[in-house]
Amino acid sequence: MIRIGMVVLALAAALAAVAAAVALSPWWWFAAVPLLLLGLLGTWDLAQRKHSVLRNYPVLGHARFLLEHVRPELQQYFVERNFDGRPFDRDVRSIVYERAKGTDAEQPYGTERDVYAPGYEFLVPSMAPREAPGTPPRVRVGGPDCAKPYDMALLNVSAMSFGSLSSNAILALNGGAAAGGFAHDTGEGGLSEYHLRPGGDLVWEIGTGYFGCRTRDGDFDPKEFADKAAHDQVKCVSLKLSQGAKPGIGGVLPGPKVNAEIAGVRDVPEGRTVISPPYHRVFSTPRELVRFVARMRELSGGKPTGFKLCVGSRQQFLAVCRAMLEEGTTPDFIIVDGAEGGTGAAPLEFADHVGTPLTEGLLTVHNSLVGAGLRDRIRIGASGKIATGADLVKRLVQGADYGNAARAMMFAVGCIQAQRCHTNRCPTGVTTQDPRRARALDVGDKTQRVQRLQAATVASAVELMASMGVTDPADLRPHMLRRRIDPYTERSYEELYEWLAPGQLLTGPPESWAADWKAADPDRFTV
């Protein structure tokens, strides 16, 4: 109401100045004209639907776009760095914004990166490039125990909960998924009407709080889970073990954001801060984890079921592989979340110092499954700062089958990284439960942006692969991605990392894996 009041006040002052100019002195026109222009600009800002910032901050919000306009001349690229210290070659936010708006175009001149700097990575082009397929490839998710396999897109919406995100943000994300034919991970905050209303495919994530399928004392409720998993839009079910930005601790939703609607979706008390436990009640050993995933698949009617984690101990993950072998069952997918992934709120020490980066996490999970002879039964998803087609192709080379994006999708729905997610005062209506702020996010416009971003990013990835002589992601190989070690030396991923052969852990593990494989206990998570 304050923003409307200020615009009305400006218009009233303008009319008063006009009256004074006519009745008293022409000098009043020097006040009347600027006030009238400000009032009209504010009115337009409130009425337009393209920019959420302007709807929440009429007139003042234009300062943000002015700074964005002059930024390329002031700053050549991000100061933000990814996990191994390499600067992005271009402002990734700009790439995402342009693709979401449908204005992605070629840039003049060459790379802005130092191609001789240690850490620089590049994809290897082929002397016999292929024509990019007209229809992007998809990934069949569903092992031998799955009755209802799902064909996953190469890029999907990563886990972001209703409660952390506004209802309009969820509607836009799912609407984009419905329009573009890709999947939308619900996050651990439960299954809401905003996930279901647009009709997009869903990966229903269950966290340690079992929100949306929990008993009054916080245990897993199998009946409520089975009822909701039966929704036609729920294509897969994911058990969250840990999150890249804060592995080892649960999520937090501040009390002011827990309104009656969110409390009902999550099965929690209204107005009280919701803290997810750091661990699951339903299992405490690798074997129990594997059994519970199989139980979730049975309760869901045979839909693809898996788990998400930020990788820590290789020995612990190998223990899970041993449990799979002994139990004779596997998850249908595993989502690897990198330590460089984002979150609405996390202790800085956890975000900066805990968890394995996505590259090493993917290599650990991929090689463990290959070495245990299980890789052909399980698909691997990658999550953690995937924003461009090049990001996606690199993750596919490193062992993933598909990717999930959260931060880029938030940019598409209007996030400007104001870092006010935890305050309930998001300036663009993305991460707030304040209905006056959330209404600034126009669902129709942002739905189109989400769809365009995903389509353009996947098209870029497919085009990159074609330039490498590949049309099927399964044909990507480690030698196709190279990293500079120093100004005079570069190595391929095939040379930099150890790659296990199928079943190698069972027949004769290499020395570097032998101790961890021997110590892996399916009945205990060893420290």
Structure at a glance:
With 527 residues, the protein is an alpha/beta fold. The chain has 20 helices and 15 strands. Mean pLDDT is 87; it is low at 70-90.
Describe this structure in words.
The protein is α/β, with parallel strands linked by helices. It folds into two domains: 2-72, no CATH class; 139-501, Alpha-Beta Barrel (TIM Barrel). It has 20 helices and 15 strands. The protein has an eight-stranded parallel sheet. It is globular. It starts with a helix and ends in an 8-residue tail after the last helix.
Topology:
Layout: H1 2-23, H2 29-47, H3 52-56, H4 62-74, H5 92-101, E1 121-123, E2 139-141, E3 150-152, E4 155-157, H6 167-180, E5 183-185, H7 193-196, E6 201-206, H8 222-229, E7 234-240, E8 252-253, H9 260-266, E9 274-275, H10 286-299, E10 305-309, H11 314-327, E11 333-337, H12 348-353, H13 358-371, E12 379-383, H14 389-397, E13 402-405, H15 407-412, H16 435-438, H17 443-467, E14 481-486, E15 489-492, H18 493-496, H19 504-507, H20 511-519
Parallel strand pairs: 4-13, 5-6, 6-7, 7-10, 10-11, 11-12, 12-13
Antiparallel strand pairs: 1-14, 2-3, 8-9, 14-15
Q: Write down the CATH topology of the largest domain.
A: TIM Barrel
Helix content: 40-55%
Strand content: 5-15%
CATH superfamily of the largest domain: Aldolase class I
Q: Give the total of beta strands.
A: 15
List keywords for this structure.
527 residues; alpha/beta; TIM Barrel; 2 domains; three-stranded antiparallel sheet; 20 helices; globular
